[in-house]
Amino acid sequence: MSGKIIGIVILIASLIAGAGLYYLQVYGFYEEIAADGADVQLVSLSTGMPELIPADSFQGIDADSSPIRYRACFTIDLSLALLTETYVMVEGVTPRNAPGWFGCFDAAALGAELAAGTALTFLGQKNVHFGVDRFVAITDDGRGYSWHDLNDCGKKAYDGTVVGEVCPALPEPQN
């Protein structure tokens, strides 16, 4: 009989641990970002520096637990033609999935729009965190989406490859 009790205790502990892990991954670490006017930036072709673009209806989430958990949705009034002439475009970048509860960011639908050519991707900011860039996708009807993804330096640093001289110095570990 004691074997059954031990088995039940192990099963209950596993269920509690699994539910806790699921909650922490999907809900626990995310915080809503308040729009502060500096949220939507694109890198200028002329200066190579990020510039603010006017955005409305901003919704964003981020987490301190990972530099690539950032997601945002917004609307803009600028045309794709103006954006392509003014800001740095990026090809071959795919959006990262957002938690299911963050309804405005649908990575699969955005990826389909990028593949169909009804949305374009721009560089929002280089090295937001070490090895992480911010990308911004704008659809032809003015919907905008933003997310973080690893750049070449980040991919090298996190897979153990020698980073090299073209990457900025790795940040010092915090105690």
What report would you give on this structure?
This protein has 175 residues and is an alpha+beta fold. The chain has one domain. Helices cover 30% and strands 27% of the residues. It contains four helices and eight strands. It has a six-stranded antiparallel beta sheet. Strand 6 and strand 7 form a beta hairpin. It is globular. The protein starts with a helix and ends in a 16-residue tail after the last helix. Keywords: Kinase, Membrane, Transferase, Transmembrane, Transmembrane helix. This is Histidine kinase. Pfam families: DUF6446.
Topology of helices and strands:
Layout: H1 2-28, E1 31-33, E2 41-43, E3 50-52, E4 56-62, E5 71-75, H2 80-86, H3 107-116, E6 119-129, E7 132-139, E8 143-150, H4 152-159
Antiparallel strand pairs: 1-4, 2-3, 4-5, 5-8, 6-7, 7-8
Reading side by side through the largest sheet, how are the strands ordered?
Answer: 1-4-5-8-7-6
Unreliable residue stretches: none
Shape category: globular
> What string, H for helix and E for strand, traces the elements in order?
HEEEEEHHEEEH
- Span between N and C termini? 49 Å
How many beta-strand runs?
Answer: 8
CA-based gyration radius: 20 Å
Beta strand %: 25-35%
Structural class: alpha+beta
Q: Helix count, per DSSP?
A: 4
Mean pLDDT: 87
What's the main sheet like? 6 strands, antiparallel
Keywords: Kinase, Membrane, Transferase, Transmembrane, Transmembrane helix
Transmembrane segments: 6-24
GO molecular function: kinase activity
Protein name: Histidine kinase
